[in-house]
Amino acid sequence: MSKNAGARFATSVIGIDTNARYALQPQNLEERASAALGPAAAYTEEEPTVSEWLRELVPTKAGVLHYFQSLFPCLFWLQRYNPRWLLGDAVAGFTIGLVVVPQAMAYAVLAGLTPAYGLYTSFTGAVLYWVFGTSKDIVIGTTAVGSLLVGQVVNRVKEKNDSMYDSQQIAHTLSLLCGIVLFFFGLLRLGWVVEFIPYIPISAFVTAASITIMSTQIPTALGIKGIKSQSPPYRVIIDTLKALPNTKLDAAIGVSSIVLLFAIRAFCSHMESRQPAHKRAWSFVSSLRLTFTMLLFTLISFLVHGFKKLGTPDLSTALIQEILPELPAVAIILIIEHIAIAKSMGRLYNYSINPSQEIVALGAANLLSPFVGGYVCTGSFGASAVLSKAGVRTPLAGAFSAIMLILALYALTGVFYYIPNAALSGLIIHAVCNLITPPKNLYKYWQLSPLELLIWVACVAMAILQSLDHSIYLGVGLSLALLLIRIARANGGFVGVARSRRVPWVTDYPADKLADSSITNKDVFLPFNRQGASNPAIVLHTPYPGVFVYRLHDSYNYINQALHVDILQSYLMNNTQRTSEEQYEHESDRLWNDSGPRDKLLSQHLPYLRALILDFSAVNNIDITSVQGLIDLRNVLDRYAAPDTVEWHFANVQNRWTRKALAAAGFGYPTSQNPEALAKWKPIYSIAPISDAATCTQNDHRRRSCAPASDEENNTSPTWSQPTTNLENDRGEATILAVDRPFFHIDLHDAVDAAVRDARHKDTSGSI
Fold it and tell me: Which residues belong to CATH 3.30.750.24 in the chain?
């Protein structure tokens, strides 16, 4: 028994009729098209299959090779490395090293660790990123937001377990878990998932994190003791204000460091505008203000040299279980912060990055970090901005910044040992001030989307009143809810036709010649509800009495199908009249909401329903529920228009699986089984050149009408059951879309032409 015979036997046993979908489809569509098109070829569409889809998922040898090569982007540019790139990378790398050292030490304190741990963390990002990364401008290291999250996780775990674990062990375990998750996330090339998290929650989170960071650092900058920084920010701010009388001498250092940092930045910005020729030099000086300030407030002493914390992280199963609930928020922020910076730099300097590969690099850095004593790291916006301005040429600049970090660990650690905590707090406060969303951006959000601004406010409020992880969850949840609501309420609209004329700009064109026939004329389709951007004074009309065009403004799926179906049914029945009155044996059999003949009298001036055209230009995929909604509506309209049937035309259906689903549901072709009606039906085909043959003329796109076909029915197996393409003879032109799906049209104009032609034929022939 052959494979096909076995499949047919199996389907017959379980009661599946594979040819049921073709029962109402005319069997001679391809023959009629071939007869009408003459020398042009008739194309029939080959439907996609599950086996074809599965074959596309199987990786090829070339695809596997490309995947492994893409894991190491450095292989593509190292072979072209040259001395000029080396010089640019060395200068940029050493420059960013000077900036990263004080930043890393300050952010380590924010994470509840000693300053040396910040250097360890930044070292891992610098030494690994150039191998895996795809951006030349990214600096992976400690960040204010990441360090704050680590500090919060450390404090929560220690409080819950009575300080059973030390801060370093918790931070190392968190980094290792993040590294594992991110590394495999990137290996699976799931970087596109990041796009599910919109910009607004991230903007709100960064602003809230900045406020949180400042609230926790102000007490240290003022020398105030006894403030529980783990409390919600509003509580910390209130407690700090109450404790202001307890301010100590540390405030002189903290406040003066903040003033000095802002003064240097303001002075350098002023000089950049005063001396444009030396703008780069002043920008370089400004980028080193953190280093200058730290040196000013530091006493030279001794700090433990080198990688004293080098070794395997001390892992505990119980600790891992404690950290796992905190992992999602930390991982999400690390990914988003890094990808956002990488994309921003790519847009700024005209190159593209691979999000999945960036996540691989981020995961690798976090995997290595705990082995050298560091904690979680991600892309740093401030350091990346400095690196890009310093003239970086390739990702290898990170290796040079790693040299600076090693130098700091082995030779300069004593210089930074006695940095006052107040000065570190001042540095942190200054660094995060720039992260707060300015009022002008909030006004821009209001102009772009007021609802998203409300989400932003809700996220910031949640962070201040509760915690940062609750803020990010709330923001993502509200954004997804807003997305679902917009999809669910994305109703379409009926459109009308307006005859437009395109008037060229010619200065000496006479005003009284605007009606000249040489001016381009065309039909445009505009919404009847006037909610679009078009001039509401423009006169619109339906393409033909009884022919209606419905445009879906967004996707069509199970979430919004009920809304679309309700709009379609209500509008069509309110703007047409029933073809024939339903007959009831008893008047009481009539539905309670059917007012009967009275409606008939009121609707006598309305046309009969002839055709419905759906513009699917905004639709890509459909599902079972949405297709069933169309089937149900078709049944309702056919009863309404009986004994006639309503033609369904579709424009701009590009997805093959969507076309297959619609065809399987009985759409895409005439379903009338009246041989006489089918014989009089004349489809319209759109044809175009298929080669550079001499037959190709300036008329690259034209329509042909089908001549009347024979009334004789073909009782043999339908030719459309095995789709073919009759292009074996180079005849110059062929149909653009399949001739066995004549109600699927290349554009809205073709769909309207076909529907109007059929409706006019019914009216002139006296057909009901």
Answer: 491-504+518-581+597-671+744-768
